[in-house]
Design brief:
By secondary structure, the chain is α/β, with parallel strands linked by helices. The chain folds into 3 domains: 1-171, GMP Synthetase, Chain A, domain 3 (2-Layer Sandwich); 172-383 and 579-634, Ribonuclease Z/Hydroxyacylglutathione hydrolase-like (Metallo-beta-lactamase, Chain A, 4-Layer Sandwich); 390-572, 3-Layer(aba) Sandwich (Rossmann fold), CATH 3.40.50.
Length: 636
């Protein structure tokens, strides 16, 4: 079936191509139709040609130089260095043999592109390689380097993966699209282990596959993959909304379990997802609590991951097209829009989202071509979830820091490495720069530094204000001298025994990581303060401290359990969350365009899920549902 479809597409493309094009091959690579030509000039000037072909065929079209006309690596590097002005400050040149791209990192990428793209087109003409131009990040990211190395060393295998996937996607649906259903496998009437299965007569797509880091056993930690509807062999795709572990932490297990298909997400999500999964494995190993997957399964996931930009429509199965939109939650977070059965049904999965502009990100998208059903988060969906404005939250944090430093104490902020940490870094840097709080060291522990490196490497996902500050004003708050990257345990001890300071440390819910160690060292001194700025899951150590428990049994440095007496101040400051509060959730449902026929609430405590659903139904006369785990809901 796929070969027939490809032959039809080939014939249509051949008719449309100019006579001078020397066609080498046409093939499916994942969701894309790739045209290989022996004319690098055609690749350089392919804009209108691609647009017209894509519009007619309703497929993603890529034109590449055939391998026979590509210059060798060393000659290409020489040519690039001749063509690109020295002022561009090229820092690295690598090659992607799957996409036939030369990846050029430069401090001033605009000079590599050239006016109206003239320089980048010249690179194609002279070398055959299509340039992929990246800004040199001010902080080098180890995880991005690792991902690039994995893809480069497995380029032939990845090419086969994409070709096999392309044949499956483009084979066409076998059955009429008469129904669509959604099965809840995790994250419904609870927070953690988000996972759901979208089914049509022709497709099976998994939406997120996370873990509950505060879960007490396998039954509460991991998604319910044992539902009758779920079969790993029949799974067409996995779509990841964002990189937090409660949405992506169990994906490596799918590859351990035998999955051979793709994962779709944004580039930033792939980078951060890899970072958080590797750290999750590392912590589990250190705590002698092994997971049912390991590093090789993360590497397998990387080889199977296909990254998408916001707004790009992509075939992910015979009858489903996916488009990702900004969710405003963390870097690269996406609302996932599914166009099913040539428009028979359109479903939106919001993932976690923030319907408010933050210092870090733009607010979540509310406008879509069509939406018949919407699955939306309800973390703060209760009517009492009225949080202070961001401005008031910042003032409250600064007041708390000022008082603590004044009495000679230290401020510990357990924080999620991705999102909240960077938001706080921006706030602290600004207030310190303007002299509104004392200049003291801000210690960054755990994965915060590496996660921040990813933020500096993917600036296209940041808010417009922050991009302007970095690129046009020449001020990057992430590389302020106030920040200190904590390297080892000896340095941690110096910090807790030293002068007043601010400590940002993972994990955010104190379910492990160095925030727990800092807490043990600091909690029995009344001069110190612990500040919670993010969600604390039921059962987590953070929730216990937040609730006012004064005696906390934990292992000491000798490995023996002892009771730690909480004498430090305990402060919760709402308003920094990456989730929408109750008012923003209601406003999102109101502004969602077009208004869906059905809204399903998920990702919230049982009461909040129901409270939000009933309020949306009363206010906007939309049908709402609040499924339990294991329930299946017919959408169409």
């Amino acid at each position: 079936m796929a070969s027939n479809v490809l032959e039809e597409i080939k014939q249509k493309i051949i008719k449309k191509l100019p006579d001078e094009v020397q066609l080498a091959n046409i093939e499916f690579e994942g969701p894309e139709v790739v045209i290989y030509t022996k004319n690098p000039d055609i690749v350089a000037d392919n804009g209108d040609l691609i647009r017209n072909l894509a519009k007619e065929l309703r497929k993603r079209i890529i034109i590449r130089s055939d391998k026979s006309v590509l210059l060798p690596y060393d000659e290409t590097i020489k040519k690039v260095e001749e063509i690109v002005p020295e002022d561009a400050e090229i820092s690295n040149i690598t090659f992607d043999e799957v996409t036939n791209e030369v990846v050029i990192e430069a401090t001033k990428p605009g000079l590599v592109i050239g006016k109206y793209g003239v320089t980048s087109r010249e690179i194609v003409r002279k070398t055959g390689w299509a340039p992929k131009i990246l800004r040199t990040p001010p902080i080098r990211s180890d995880v991005i380097d690792r991902i690039r190395n994995t893809l480069m060393h497995n380029s032939k295998e990845r090419k086969k993966i994409l070709q096999t996937l392309g044949a499956r996607i483009h084979q066409g649906g076998k059955y009429p699209n008469e129904w669509t259903r959604l099965t809840a496998m995790g994250g419904f009437k609870e927070v953690g282990r988000s996972c759901m299965l979208l089914q049509t007569p022709n497709s099976r797509v998994l939406l997120d596959c996370g873990v509950n880091v505060a879960g007490q056993d396998d039954k509460t930690k991991f998604p319910m993959l044992g539902v009758p509807e779920f079969s790993i062999q029949d799974l067409d795709a996995v779509v990841v909304s964002h990189a937090h572990l409660d949405h992506c932490g169990f994906i490596p297990y799918l590859y351990h379990y035998g999955y051979e298909g793709p994962v779709y997400c944004t580039t930033a999500t792939r980078d951060l997802m890899t970072l958080l999964q590797m750290d999750y494995i590392d912590i589990a190993h250190r705590e002698n609590n092994p997971l049912p997957f390991n590093v090789k399964h993360v590497q397998k996931m990387i080889k199977h991951t296909i990254t998408l930009d916001y707004g790009v429509v992509t075939d992910i199965s015979p009858d489903i097209k996916l488009t990702l939109h900004n969710a405003g939650h963390i870097l690269g977070s996406a609302m996932c829009h599914f166009h099913i059965g040539d428009g028979a049904h359109n479903m939106l999965y919001t993932g976690d989202f923030k319907y408010e502009r933050s210092r870090l990100l733009e607010p979540a998208t509310t406008r879509f071509p069509r939406v018949e059903s919407c699955v939306m988060e309800s973390t703060y969906g209760g009517h009492e979830d009225v949080t202070p404005s961001r401005n008031n939250a910042e003032k409250e944090l600064m007041k708390t820091i000022y008082k603590t430093l004044k009495r000679g104490g230290k401020v510990l902020v357990p924080v999620f490495a991705v999102g909240r940490a960077q938001e706080l870094m921006i706030v602290l840097e600004e207030y310190m720069r303007h002299g509104m709080i004392d200049e003291v060291p801000i210690h960054l522990d755990g994965m915060i530094w590496e996660a921040t490196a990813v933020h500096t490497a993917r600036p296209e996902y940041l808010s417009k204000d922050l991009r302007d500050q970095i690129f046009h004003m020449g001020r990057n708050p992430f590389i302020s001298e106030s920040f200190n990257k904590v390297q080892n345990n000896a340095e941690r001890k110096q910090i807790v025994e030293g002068e007043p300071s601010i400590i940002l440390s993972t994990s955010g819910m104190m379910t492990g990581g160095n925030s727990v160690e800092y807490f043990k060292w600091l909690c029995e001194d009344k001069n110190n303060t612990i500040v919670f700025v993010g969600y604390q899951s039921e059962g987590s150590l953070g929730r216990k401290i937040q609730k006012g428990h004064k005696e906390i049994p934990l292992e000491d440095e000798t490995g023996k359990t002892r009771v730690f007496n909480v004498k430090m101040d305990v402060k919760t400051i709402e308003g920094f969350s990456g989730h929408s509060n109750r008012r923003q959730l209601m406003e999102f449902a109101k502004r969602l365009h077009p208004r869906p026929d059905k809204i399903i609430t998920c990702h919230g405590d049982p009461y909040k899920t129901v409270d939000l659903a009933s309020s949306i139904h009363r206010s906007y006369k939309v049908e709402t549902k609040t499924p339990l785990i294991l329930e299946a809901t017919r959408l169409q």
